Amino acid sequence: MSLTEKEVRYVADLANLKLNPDELERMVADLGEILGHMDRLGEINTDDVAPMAQVLYEADISSTLRADVPRETLGNQAALANAPLSGSGYFKVPLVIERS
Amino acid sequence: MEVAAPEAIAKYEPVIGLEVHVQLATQTKIFCGCPTSFGAPPNTNVCPVCLGLPGALPVLAREAVELAMKAALALNCTINPSSQFARKNYFYPDLPKGYQISQFDRPLAEHGYLDINVDGAKKRIGVTRVHMEDDAGKSVHDGFKDSDQYSYVDLNRCGMPLIEIVSEPDMRSADEAHAYLTEIKQVLQFVESSTCDMEKGHLRCDANVSVRLRGAEKFGTRAEVKNLNSFRFLKAAVDYEIARQVAIVEAGGVILLETRLYNSDTGVTIGMRSKEQAHDYRYFPEPDLVPLRIGDEWRSRVKASMPEVPSAKRARFMGSYGLREYDAQVLTLTRPMSDYYEQVVDASGDPKTAANWVMGDLAGALKAAGKEIEESPVSAAHLGELVKLMGKGDISGKLAKEIFPKMFATGEPASVIMEREGLRQISDSSALEKIVDDVIAANPKQAEQYRNGKTTVLGFFVGQVMKASRGQANPATLNEIIQRKLS
C-alpha cells in the first residue's frame, strides 16, 4: 500500500507538522514502507483470533486497577518548572479564541 | 439572528438528544492518584500522569469503574463484559497529552433508558451509551492584566473522572430535555455516582437539536449546542435553537451541521468557526491501558450494592405507604430527604402523618433556618417519636405543634421537653372532667344554646377546655366528656 502526497499532507496537518518538499517526499516513501509492512502482517490468517489492542490481554483485572487513595502531587512549582511561560500559578499560552 | 414566530414553530417538531458529562465522586483522578478536591490553587493537584509528561503511564481507579457501573445500572444499561479505552486526538492548550482518553467503539455500557414525567405524561428516553473518559484542564481567558495577549491554563481538572451519557434523539421539547436532565441528576445522586454539583461543573450538558415538519419521518440536520451548564440555560438554549432553525427552514434555507455555543448573557447560540479537520480525532485503542473486563461476579456485586433509584422509591411510597404522587415526588427529590423520611416512617409506623410533618413543619422550619435536611436539629428518630406519640393519643396534634419548634431549637426529643415543661396530655378523665365542669359553669349561655340544639357550640367548649388545659387535654376523650356533661 502506498500513500499520496495529499494524504501525507493531511496527516501532517492533523499532527501540527509543517513539512518542506524534501521531507514530504521522504515521508511519502517512509510511511508507504511502514504500511507495506502492515500489509505483510495482514497476510497472517487471524480468523480464530479475537481483535486485541495490546498483548497484556490476559492480565488479571486486579493487577490493572488502582485503589482510590490520593497520592502526593507534584506541586505548583515543579509543575510549572519547564513551562516556557507562566504566571500567577498558571501556564501561560498564546491567546486561545475558540475550541471545537 | 432571526427567530421564527410561535405559529411557524408550531408547524415543526423539534428532535433533541443530550450528551451529559458527569464527574464521578472519587477521591482521586481517573488515571492517577491526584486528589479531585475542588477549588485548589491552580496547577497544584497535578502529577506527571495528568500533566502528560513523557513516559508517565495511566492506571485506572477501581472506584471510578464501580461508580460508572452504578450510574450505568441506574440508567438501565447493559454493562459490556469487555470495554476499551481509546485516544481521541486533538490539540488544545488545556489538553497536555494531546489526546483525551475516552471510549469509542467499545463503551462501558449501552442500551439503557430513563423514564421521565412531563405534565403528568410518562415517557421513556433511550440511553444509547455510557462511557468513561478523563476531563481536560481549564483555560482562563480573562481577568489578568495581560489577558489580551495570553490565555491562562490550570490543569487541576485534567484527568478528573467523567462518564458521558449519550441519549437517543427521543426528546421533543425543551421541557422534555429539562425533565430528562433533572432525572439523570436525581438518579446519579441517589446511587452516589456523582454529587452532580452544577456550580462545580460536575454535571455538564450538550444538546443535539434539529427540527422537522410535524408528521415528517426524516430527521432534519442537527446542530450541537454546547456550554449548557444550568437547567435554565438548557431550556433557553434549546428553545432558542428551535426558533432559529425553524426561521431558516421557513425562509427556504439550509441548517448547517455544526457546533454552536450558547451565550447565557445574550440568550442566543453562535456557530463556532471550526476547521473541517478538527472533527478527525483519529481514535485508536489506548495502548497504555488493557481492556476493561467486568465479569459476572463483579457486576453482580455492584448490582447488589445499588440503592433503590428514585422512580422505584416513588412507586413504593405510593403503593406501600399510600402517598399521593405529588408527596412521593417531593419526598424523593434528594437521597437525604428520602432517607430521612423513611427513618421517620420506621420510627413512627405512620407514613402519611410522617409525610405531612416532613413536608410541613420540618420543611418550613428548615427553610426559615436556612438549613438542609442533613443538618436538621430534629433527628429523624425524634420526629418519628413525636409522630408516634400523636398516633398513640399521648399528645394532641396541637400539643405536637407546640413541642416541635422547641425540639427544633434544642435538638432534644419530645419526651425530654414535655417532662421539663410539664407538658403532658391529660387523658385521665377525672382531671379532665373537672376542667370541663369549670368551663361549663363559666359559660352558662353557651351551655344553654347547646341544650337548645345548637350543637356547633361544641367547638367553642373544646377550644375553652384546650385553653384551660394549656393544650394538654386529649381531644379524643374530651369531645365525649363535654357532650356527656352538656346533655
Compose a concise summary of this entry.
By secondary structure, chain A is of the alpha+beta class. Chain A is built from 3 helices and 3 strands, in the order ααβαββ.
How would you describe this structure to a colleague?
The complex is a heterodimer of chains A (100) and B (487). By secondary structure, chain A is α+β, with helices and mostly antiparallel strands. Chain A has 3 helices and 3 strands, in the order H-H-E-H-E-E. Chain A has helices at 5-14, 21-41, 76-80; strands spanning 65-66, 86-87, 90-94. Chain A has a two-stranded antiparallel ribbon. In chain B, the strands form 4 sheets. In chain B, strands 3-7-8-11-1-12-13-14-15 form a 9-stranded mixed beta sheet. Chain B has a 3-stranded antiparallel beta sheet with strand order 6-5-16, with no helix packed on it. A two-stranded antiparallel sheet of chain B has the order 4-17. In chain B, helix 8 packs across helix 9. The radius of gyration of chain B is 30 Å and the shape is elongated. Chain B contains 16 helices and 17 strands. The model of chain B has no long low-confidence stretch (mean pLDDT 90). Chain B folds into 3 domains: 6-298, no CATH class; 308-421, no CATH class; 429-486, Arc Repressor Mutant, subunit A (Orthogonal Bundle). Helix content of chain B is 40%, strand content 20%. Chain B has helices at residues 6-10, 62-74, 174-190, 231-250, 296-304, 310-319, 325-331, 335-348, 351-369, 380-391, 397-410, 414-421, 429-442, 444-451, 458-468, 475-486, and strands at 12-23, 60-61, 78-79, 82-83, 85-89, 99-103, 109-118, 121-134, 138-140, 150-154, 161-167, 203-213, 223-228, 258-263, 268-271, 284-285, 292-293. At the A-B interface, helix 1, strand 1, helix 3 and strand 3 of A face strand 2, helix 2 and strand 10 of B. Strand 1 of chain A pairs parallel with strand 2 (60-61) of chain B.
